[in-house]
Amino acid sequence: MPDARRGWALVGVVSLVAFLIRLWHLGYPNKLVFDETYYAKDAWSVLHFGYERTWADNANDLIVRGAIDQMGSSAEFVVHPPLGKLLIGLGEAMFGMTSFGWRIMAVVFGTLLIAATMLLARRLSRSNLVAALAGILLTVDGLEFTMSRLALLDVFQATFLVAAVACLVRDRDAMRSRLAAHLEAAGLADLGGAYGPRLWWRPWRLASGVLFGCSIATKWNTVYALAAFGVLTLAWDIGARRLAGARRPALPGLFRDGLPAFLQLVPVALLAYLASWLPWLTSTGGWDRQWAVENPDAPLARHLPHALASLIAFHREIYQFHTGSYINHATHPYAAGPWGWLILMRPLGLDAVNGITPGTDGCPPGGENCLRVMTTLGTPLLWWGAAAALVAAILLWIGLRDPRFSVPVVGALAMWLPWFLYTERPLFFFYAICIVPFTVTALAMCLGKIIGPADGGWRRVVGATIVGVYVALVILNFAWFWPIYTDGLLTWSRWWARMWFTSWV
């Protein structure tokens, strides 16, 4: 590993810059934007009652005026687990039911997402430079930026996910170190065909299980990443034993390493997930909370504690919502299929104030009309480069057998490909917030290859120049789109200059 102090200093500097630019004018616009209408209010009710409650029909307008006592007394049906809302509620507890209050924790976790991505890239590449590239690029990504400034759930999910993967990679290195230490202590050159020591105490993998559970407790689809990385961590263990001289370690590895891996990831993740439901479980008024009492003859109610039976019944309703006929027949003007996410086919418009006449709301007098918009558009030069890097990473991993690229490839594909199973329902580009940390990591690692080794001479100078120009262009590209990330004022012609494709409108 490279110098730790320099690495942590880079993480600190990049994270601080990312935090400050995300904090800028955080309370604007002073209204509930897009799905904040659900999560900001759900967070407030969970904070005070442990479960989501209904709100008055005109609550949004009244809340921004300071009249926050618009909550009803009945439970609201919700379709996502509570952890993200609990975190949003933490910000509201500190700063009140205001636009700043319901967004501040997204800023914190958006910054932590950048830090976690840097630590992941550093450990994979063994390079502080590559880590810095990953952090800088993710800092100036338009999707990560906008999602870090809104009270939506996805940035919390992505942060826990990347942190879980980083812990799993740290566990991989720790396992290899312990295996090498075993050989050294025994005075052996290799295992000589034996399977080797039992390495069942894996605190980094336990931490990964907790973090995977937290990510699933924000949004369910992280379960695909848990499954994919569960297989990958077992492959790492078997590969390490084979490298150390074990003969045919695959079959015994399925039990001797596979069973501990399963127990340290899946049940631990399940416990962390269930812990997020404690406020609901300890309440009496949550949606379906009294289901077991009201259905005493149901098998679940007869064989399980009432609280757990009711929770399972609630989950059944949530799953039916996500896969049922209602959602599969729904439409949305900003629906975007996953096939176009990586190339920015259809970004999501979050907020728009159209038809601002000259001389009003800052619109220059005597000219054309203005507008204010907020769009979740990834920084184009970054996303297109990252899509190409993902293809290169697949080739480098499978074709050239460079195992470092397995992590960004598995992470990106695990959080992208499963969405193709659900294309009958409306899907949105901002779901890709869980993909971009991995594609950016792949991009940073590919840029590191372009730069070359430290003793590369003129080749390194040329490579560093190419990479420096590219990073500078990405930063300028982010600055160009800044107004549409922040609800900035634009004339119509200046807004159209930023709509490079008709599918972006």
Could you give a quick summary of the protein structure above?
By secondary structure, the protein is mostly helical.
SSE inventory with pairings:
Elements (H helix, E strand, L loop, with lengths): L3 H20 L12 H14 L3 E3 L3 H6 L6 E5 L7 H13 L3 H27 L2 H12 L2 H6 L6 H33 L16 H14 L5 H22 L6 H7 L1 H19 L1 H4 L9 H4 L4 H5 L2 H18 L1 H4 L19 E9 L13 E7 L3 H20 L6 H9 L21 H16 L6 H28 L3 E3 H5 L9
Antiparallel strand pairs: 1-2, 3-4, 4-5
Characterise the protein shown here.
The structure is a single chain. This protein is mostly helical. 61% of the residues lie in helices and 5% in strands. It contains 22 helices and five strands. Helix 20 (436-451) runs antiparallel to helix 21 (458-485). The longest helix has 33 residues, at 154-186. The protein starts with a helix and ends in a 9-residue tail after the last helix.
Low-confidence stretches: none
The proportion of residues in beta strands is: 5-15%
Alpha-carbon distance between the termini? 46 Å
Summing up helix and strand content along with how strands pair, one would put the structural category as: mainly alpha
Taking Cα atoms only, what radius of gyration do you get, to the nearest Å?
24 Å
Strand arrangement in the largest pleated sheet? 3-4-5
Number of strands: 5
